[in-house]
Amino acid sequence: MSKIEEVRSAMVAAMKAGDKERKAALSFLLSSLKNKAIDKRADLTEEEEGQVILKEIKQLKETLDMTPEDRTDIIDECKKRLSVLEEYAPKMMDEGEIKAVITEVLASLGIEQPTPKDKGRIMKELMPKVKGKADGKLVSDILTSMMA
Asked: pLDDT for 5-35, tens place per residue?
């Protein structure tokens, strides 16, 4: 079952249950997924579906960061949407898994002890392997912590 079908059936369930906020969040996600499929003119792969969901989550987090604290209505709505979207987000890699991928990339590049000078080259190899599975900032921070 594709994410579009999964989200659509969850949205129908939310409508039947009378959960307006959940229905709105799922409707928003469903339209984003459909728009991406229309732009591509083909069905989305699982990875592309994950990227759409992560993009929506990132935008909601940015909205939360930019919203003044006295606008509790917007903050509450964003938090509710976030909790719904995170149910459908792909499982993210933890620190141990990221370190394993970094070690693998270092070995393939022949780098025993990474230095700040090597970071660009390492990240260029590394990011395609973890894209959509790990937060880029976390990957960069872990790589920096492994440098001499």
From this structure: 898 999 999 999 999 989 999 999 999 999 9
Q: Residue 144: what pLDDT?
A: 85
Type of residue at 92: M
The Cα 144–Cα 115 span in angstroms is: 9
**Residues 96-132: b if buried by 16+ CB within 10 A, e if exposed:** eebbebbeebbeeeeeeebeeeeeeebeeebeeebeb
Q: Shortest CA distance to 38 belongs to which of 27, 52, 59, 24? A: 52
Instruction: Assess whether pLDDT exceeds 80 at residue 148.
Output: no
Cα dihedral 82, 85, 40, 139 sign: positive
**Mean pLDDT for the chain overall:** 87
Residue listed under structure tokens 């990240």:
123
What is the third-level CATH fold of 95-146?
Answer: Arc Repressor Mutant, subunit A (1.10.10)
CATH 1.10.1510.10 location in the chain: 3-88
Query: Residue 88 is encoded by which pair of tokens?
Result: 């459908």
DSSP conformation letters of 49-86: HHHHHHHHHHHHHHHHHHS-TT-HHHHHHHHHHHHHHH
